[in-house]
Design brief:
The protein is mostly beta strands. The protein is built from ten helices and 98 strands. Helix 1 packs parallel to helix 4 and helix 2 runs antiparallel to helix 4.
């Protein structure tokens, strides 16, 4: 067993650790000013231990190094060459001794440190101390691709916890396996960066923390790249060279591992053999294993071994994560020796048929105190249904109970897991789901611990001081947005305080301000939180509070609007990549193809690619790789030589797989140009063994060449020489065709060596390696000689069959049996497989380890004992060839012959199929016949019976061991005999048995369908035991193409009740099918036939092709429509409602094929039964439609759907009675399901809240509003499927402005009601004769009583004897002119006015003399009386009681949705030029003239506050 020697690159650093710790120890002594007594061992004791450790034990030659006598000469030759380097070896041994001494010294110091620290534990534990770096970090500058180690020493009580950071970001070893390694040994904390690159240049810090404080140490690392040191990589598949380990070993790789194929759940070993010079047992070579450029480390999933001339990598638990390019790198004297090969890992058997494969590469990111983000890679789906989602499971480390994290499958390859326990460690796994079932679980992730990352970041900052209530969180945003969930992220508060912290989250619909708490049931400790219950189509805002034991912070700034779906409403997984471009396949080797493709035009964060292949002509695809491949070129291995394939590629990201690319052009699997004939002549035979000797001759045997050179080996030539000579002599001049030859004319007692050459049509190949020296002496032992020609067949993962030939020398008696021994390659411990000798010359070996290599030997037995063992066989690996298939037993579908068939996975032009029964060649046998075509061979039995039972095997020659076997049992033979009989005596298979269907005109069709019919088919119909033929009343026919046989009955009546049977004869096959048509089944058929006949008759005249139905126009007009057929110009069409005829404005046009009755402004009054009647001289048809019940509700819902979609945003309108919210829509009726809400509470119509509407809008009025009515208002219009919602926020400035406008309108209405006015009594024009008296009298009103002033020609009229002005009771105003004269003609006016305003009315007076013609009044000059407001509007008191309701003008919808900057309309003008001042002697010149005999009102225009109505939809 090789000794464990510390590598060179760790020696110096081991010493450095010792020195640095000593330095730390010294600083600690200086810091505390105390003396420490030494209790360590003396120096002499340490030296004694070092001397004892360096003493070399007596060297014993290992068993595997012991050499046989025959190998002595070769050993001496090698020893001579090795002695030349003896001085070099001595120097290496001296160096190793010095290294060992240094290690012993280091161990002694470490033991001293450990003992001293143990003794100080008692009193150190009692002294609390904050962390202190005794040895701080030091800066480093290194070359690229070299390792670096940062270390420091820290002390404190309790023992501090040290966290490492790079540029302020925590260093996570799991994020880059093999990149970082964090250690803590004996108080020395170290960070090892194994392979430095330029990007590792940064400031690194170590943060030590305990309950008493925090300390930080920082250092800068600079990584330089040498000139010309660019990284090289062949096709991106071979790992980069890491650090070079100086080695003085010369190493040559021999047997190398090849392309390998494994399966999930299995195990596999990759192994290389090598020659090491010098081969020192205690200095094994330095070997590194890589997978896809990532250095592998030993673990439970990866086992490594180097020694004894072997480097082995074992993967005991295969998963698809293990698929990739594996590289072995051995460090040698001249550099490195490398070898790479790809390992394919296929899916294990699915948990359910059609279930997908397991996901892979499960990793945890963004780890926090109770939250972690799990990500994985999707599996390939070739012939399975598409993946619909994934389940994520978790398990606490150390346990075996898995808990499902998500209730519904998540559709993307990411999932946030929350609710974890702080400080607990977890593993995660993922299962894929499709329509067929759930996949096997993936390999579990690496262990992650739920810790607060924000806390670690805080520890690098300055001390916060004493803070109780934390600050608010910042930078709140959605870090992950998918269809299934949204992840919220934020930064912890600063300052945050020392008390434990948790968070409270609130959400609201964007813009509403209605916040509600989310995490009511849990305490959230991480600055991450997934939200799953957001509604589609809504935008949300979020805010966060920080909470500790002292209280809560202020809310964070709200996040931006967050929505689960994109702007088009489509689900986020539209983010899968586009399909890859053109796929090109080229030849590579005889079993592989090189495939290249163009990258997708829209990559969208590619993970890799999946490549699928298909045999040309086949339907099923097969996966070429099972783990996403990063590059856009791939070598597909394991293909069948000579077969043609096409390939396709899919791109992969976290959203799933892209569409398939276009298929490549077909390509045949053949070696690339220039490699078609690898060997023109055969390779060398091998395994020369002696079978017997009689003292003058030796009988030899050997094994066939591994490569025949492209043509069959036809001859062998043998040479011999004396063992102590150099000259070879030919043994045979004529070719030997068998692999056994007796060499005569030998000298007894001499040693001879032999070599063999093989020949084919291309010539004689290279000779074999000379055999071991063989002594020519007569064999006279009684036991048999060795068996020979050991070969293998049917090599599988756990079994194989070994075959051999009988010994040439039998001994004293005949051979009675054989023993077979087995050993693992490289081991000399053979195990006998059979307890009793077997009489036949083959043995089935089972129980092998997959991927393991074995050797075998055979010993013959006779009555005298066990003979000499055969030569050890060639090593054989327990692994099936890629694409291996087994023998299939079946029955020929055409002839019914029973056969055994094998499709070879590999074949060449010279290959032949050799069939055997019980491993004895069948040859020419009348019981069977063998046929071969392409890669398939078939063994057909002539007349199979019990004599044919047994084990059949077949071997394909000139291949790498293609073979298979099948045991034909009695049960299997009987089953196939039954199937053969069925094929040879067939029946006509039916797709559908005899059935019936009702046709138009009431005809009944009886039919059945056969799978296949020939043109010579014959059949007959039998009804109630009587054969029926085509004739009057029925028609019988068939269709060969579809396989349908049918009989049509024109008039189906009660006489047709009974049993129907069809009998079919088609060649040798026949069948029949019956149908029983009686009882209820017959009655139903008869009823349907009669109905179809009546329908046919109805359609002979004018009729409805579609009965009445309703549609809704864009303006919400209900249209009762129908479609008519077979009409003429004289066909009449009438509408009725409840038997009352309806005459539409537009007469129906039946010739158009459609008629419609519009019902505008639909409401409950339109309920009733509507009828349409279509008639002419050929007949009459009627259709009715009952608009009531559910039909009425359906119409209302259809109207609501259009009206709701056209609804405008809520508009604010102020009235004297209150504040009104209006929603304009294409049509509104109270039957529509509309709901008004205030703060999510439904509003019922009342005196306070009035609800109503018109045909154009719905409104809700708040009468006499108060602060309680503030808040968010909404109207919901439901159409039975969708609810259309419009909202208005009546709060803040909007409410203030609306309330002021309401008060102004209320005051204006009060003033309008109580202002002074002329109620009636005054004419517009007065014509009077002179000398008569004129009395102008009118009734006035106002509260308070108004003042009345009369004017003539805009001059105030004073009361005198001629003109008398009176105002009685504050109600009646009169102007009396006694004995009018022409001078009294003119324009008179009355001004009635109080503090709320007044009215000005004009009268034209014409005085004519006696005898003159009465003048005509001048029409068109009359003017409407003008209402004037109070002179000082600002002084008008606001009435305390509500003004009487008055109608307010309806605002016109505006195209803008943004309220105008000014919320008030202009106040009516009240300038001195337009409004006369009371009691002014001269009225305004612009005072209008009344237009009628009654005083006209001109109401004060109201001012409204509203949000302009958007355009109607």
């Amino acid at each position: 067993m090789p000794y464990k020697v510390t590598p060179w690159y760790r020696r110096k650093r081991g010493t450095q650790v010792k020195t640095d710790y000593a330095c730390q120890h010294t600083r600690s002594v200086v810091k505390h000013r105390t003396e420490r007594k030494s209790s360590c061992k003396s120096v002499s004791q340490v030296q004694a231990q070092a001397t004892e450790a360096m003493a070399e034990p007596a060297y014993t030659i290992p068993e595997f190094r012991q050499r046989t006598t025959e190998g002595t000469e070769e050993y001496q030759r090698v020893a001579t060459n090795v002695s030349k380097g003896l001085s070099v070896i001595q120097e290496e041994i001296h160096r190793m001794r010095m290294v060992t001494k240094a290690q012993v010294d280091s161990l002694a110091i470490q033991r001293e440190v450990k003992e001293r620290m143990t003794k100080r534990t008692d009193w150190l534990d009692e002294i609390p101390k904050m962390p202190d770096f005794v040895l701080a970090l030091r800066p480093h500058t290194v070359w690229e691709k070299t390792p670096i180690k940062l270390f420091c020493t820290v002390q404190g009580n309790p023992r501090p916890v040290v966290k490492w950071y790079k540029g302020g970001v925590p260093v996570d070893p799991l994020s880059a396996p093999g990149k970082y390694k964090i250690e803590n040994k004996y108080g020395v904390h170290s960070l090892i960066i194994s392979r430095c690159v330029v990007s590792d240049t940064a400031e690194y810090s170590a943060v030590a923390t305990n309950p008493h404080g925090t300390a930080t140490s920082m250092a800068t690392v600079t990584v330089k790249r040498p000139a010309g040191g660019g990284e090289l990589c062949h096709l991106g598949l071979v790992p980069h060279l890491t650090e070079i380990h100086p080695s003085k070993l010369e190493i040559s790789l021999l047997d190398r591992f090849s392309i390998s194929f494994g399966q999930e759940g299995g195990a596999i070993s990759l192994m290389c053999t090598m020659v090491v010079v010098p081969d020192l047992p205690n200095v094994p070579p330095i070997a590194q294993w890589y997978r896809d450029d990532k250095l592998l480390k030993p673990s439970q999933l990866v086992e490594m071994f180097v020694g004894g001339g072997v480097a082995r990598l074992t993967l005991p638990h295969l998963a698809k994560d293990d698929e990739g390019l594996y590289t072995l790198r051995i460090f040698t004297k001249d550099g490195t020796a490398e070898h790479s090969a790809y390992l394919f890992v296929s899916d294990a058997a699915p948990s359910a048929p059609g279930a997908p494969g397991a996901p892979m590469s499960v990793k945890a990111y963004d780890v926090n105190a109770d939250y972690v983000l799990v990500a994985w890679k999707p599996p390939n789906t070739v012939n399975e249904a598409a993946i619909t989602g994934y389940f994520v499971d978790r398990c606490e480390a150390g346990g075996d109970t898995w808990v499902q994290c998500n209730d519904a499958p998540v559709k993307v390859c990411k999932y946030p897991v929350h609710g974890l326990s702080v400080g607990h460690s977890y593993h995660f796994r993922v299962r894929a789901v499709n329509s067929a079932g759930i996949s096997r679980p993936s390999r579990k992730s690496d262990k992650v611990t739920a810790l607060d990352a924000a806390e670690n970041e805080r520890l690098q900052g300055k001390e916060e001081g004493y803070v109780t209530i934390p600050g608010e969180p910042t930078d709140l945003h959605a870090s992950e947005v998918f269809k299934s969930y949204v992840v919220l992220s934020w930064k912890p508060p600063s300052p945050r305080g020392r008390a434990p912290l948790w968070y409270v989250i609130e959400k609201c619909i964007a813009g509403t301000g209605a916040w509600q708490r989310i995490n009511t049931a849990v305490k959230l400790h991480s600055p991450r939180y997934p939200v799953f219950d957001l509604q589609d189509g809504h935008k949300y805002q979020f805010r966060v509070y920080s909470v500790n034991m002292y209280g809560s912070s202020e809310a964070s700034a709200p996040s931006g609007p967050v929505q689960k779906v994109d702007e088009d409403g489509a689900e986020v997984p539209i983010g899968v990549p586009s399909a890859p471009g053109q796929v090109v396949a080229t030849r590579n080797t005889k079993s592989s193809v090189f495939v290249q493709w163009e990258a997708p035009k829209v990559p969208k964060n590619l993970i890799g690619y999946y490549i699928d292949g298909r045999v040309v002509g086949a339907k099923e695809w097969f996966p070429c790789n099972h783990k996403p491949f990063r590059h856009n070129r791939f070598v597909v291995h394991g293909l069948t030589p000579g077969e043609s394939y096409v390939f396709r590629v899919q791109a992969v990201n976290i959203f799933g797989l892209s569409d398939e690319s276009q298929e490549s052009s077909p390509i045949a699997v053949e070696p690339a140009l220039g490699k078609g004939v690898e060997y023109a002549t055969p390779s060398a035979p091998f395994g020369i063994t002696m079978l017997s000797s009689d003292g003058s001759s030796i009988t030899l045997a050997w094994k066939s060449p591994k490569h025949c050179g492209g043509s069959k080996v036809s001859a062998y030539y043998i040479d011999r020489r004396d063992a102590d000579g150099l000259v070879w002599k030919e043994v045979n001049l004529e070719a030997v065709t068998e692999r056994v030859c007796t060499v005569d004319n030998l000298t007894e007692g001499n040693f001879y060596e032999f070599k063999v050459q093989a020949a084919n049509m291309a010539g004689v190949g290279v000779p074999s390696v000379p055999s071991a020296p063989m002594k020519c002496e007569a064999w006279n032992m009684e036991e048999p000689g060795p068996a020979y020609d050991l070969s293998f067949s049917e090599v599988r993962s756990h079994s194989l069959v070994i075959l051999w030939k009988a010994p040439f020398y039998t001994g004293a008696s005949a051979v009675t049996g054989y023993f077979v021994d087995m050993a693992k390659k490289g081991s000399s411990e053979f195990t006998t497989l059979n307890e009793e000798a077997v009489s036949h010359r083959y043995l089935q070996v089972s129980g092998l380890e997959e991927g393991e290599t074995y050797v075998f030997r055979v010993r013959a037995v006779n009555t005298k004992g066990v003979g000499k063992a055969s030569q050890v066989s060639e090593p054989v690996c327990a692994r099936a060839l890629p694409g291996t298939k087994e023998i299939e037993a079946g029955v020929d579908e055409e002839t019914g012959d029973i056969f055994l068939s094998l499709e070879a996975c590999e074949i060449c032009e010279e290959s032949k199929f050799v069939w055997s029964k019980n491993y004895k060649p069948i040859g020419d046998c009348p019981r069977v016949s063998v046929t071969s075509k392409g890669r398939t061979s078939r063994l057909t039995f002539t007349n199979p019976d019990k004599d044919d039972l047994g084990k059949y095997s077949v071997v394909v020659t000139d291949t790498d061991g293609v073979s298979a076997s099948h045991t034909l049992t009695e049960d299997a033979l009987n089953t196939m005999l039954e199937l053969s009989h069925a094929i040879r005596h067939p029946v006509v298979p039916l797709k559908h048995g005899l059935n019936y269907e009702i046709l138009e005109k009431g005809h009944v069709r009886f039919w059945l369908q056969a799978v296949k019919l020939s043109p010579s088919v014959s059949y007959r119909f039998i009804v109630n035991d009587k054969e029926v033929t085509s004739g009057e009343g029925q028609k019988i026919s068939h269709d060969v193409a579809t396989g349908v046989i049918q009989m049509t009955v024109d008039l189906f009546t009660r006489a047709n009740e009974g049993t129907y049977t069809v009998q079919i004869h088609d060649g040798k096959a026949k069948t029949q099918s019956s149908l029983v048509l009686v009882g209820d089944v017959f009655k139903a058929a008869l009823k349907e036939a009669e109905f179809q006949r009546k329908e046919h008759i109805r359609k002979q005249g004018p009729h409805f092709s579609e009965y009445l139905y309703f549609t809704i126009a864009d303006d919400c007009t209900v249209m009762l429509a129908c479609k008519v057929a077979n009409v003429q110009k004289d066909t009449a069409f009438r509408w009725y409602k409840e038997e009352d005829e309806i005459v539409p404005e537009t007469p129906p046009n039946v010739m158009s094929g459609a008629c419609a009755l519009p019902i505008p402004l639909f409401s409950r009054k339109d309920q009733g039964v509507y009828k349409a009647v279509l008639s002419d001289n050929r007949g009459k048809d009627t259709s009715t439609f009952d608009i009531s019940g559910q039909a009425f509700d359906d119409i209302i819902n259809a109207i609501a759907q259009i009206a709701g979609a056209s609804a405008s945003e809520l508009v604010l309108q102020c009235t004297p009675e209150g504040i009104r919210l209006q929603c304009y829509m294409s049509y509104y009726t109270e039957e529509m399901k509309t709901v008004w809400k205030h703060k999510e509470s439904k509003i019922a119509s009342s005196e306070k809240m009035r609800i109503g509407g018109t045909a154009e809008m719905a409104w809700m009025q708040i009468c006499d509003p108060t602060d309680k009515e503030k808040g968010n208002y909404s109207i919901e219009i439901s159409d039975g499927v969708k609810t259309h919602t419009r909202t208005f926020d009546l709060s803040g400035q909007a409410y203030t402005d609306a309330y002021e406008e309401y008060l102004r309108l209320k005051a204006a209405a009060f003033a309008e009601k109580n202002r002074g006015r002329v109620v009636g009594g005054l004419p517009d024009v007065v014509t009077i004769m002179e000398e008569k008296s004129l009395s102008l009298t009118c009734t006035v009103w106002g509260e308070p009583t108004p003042e009345v002033t009369w004017f003539k020609n805009e001059q105030e009229v004073a009361s005198n004897e001629h003109t008398k002005v009176t105002f009685d009771g504050g109600k009646f105003a009169s102007l009396v002119i006694n004995k009018v004269t022409p001078d009294d003609s003119g324009k008179y006016s009355i001004n009635v006015r109080n503090k709320y305003g007044g009215e000005f009315v004009e009268i034209t007076v014409s005085v004519y003399r006696h005898g003159e013609q009465i003048p005509e009044p001048k029409l068109g000059q009359a003017k409407t009386p003008t209402a004037t407001p109070a002179a000082t509007p600002a002084a008008t008191p606001v009435p305390k009681s509500p003004a009487p309701p008055s109608k307010t003008p309806t605002p016109t919808p505006s195209k803008s949705q943004t309220p105008a900057p000014s919320m008030k309309s202009p106040t009516p003008a009240s300038t001195p030029s337009s409004t006369p001042v009371p009691k002014s002697p001269t009225p305004s010149q612009r005072s209008p003239t009344p237009a009628s005999s009654r005083g006209a009102k001109s109401p004060t225009p109201t001012r409204s506050i509203k949000s302009p109505t958007p355009p109607r939809k």
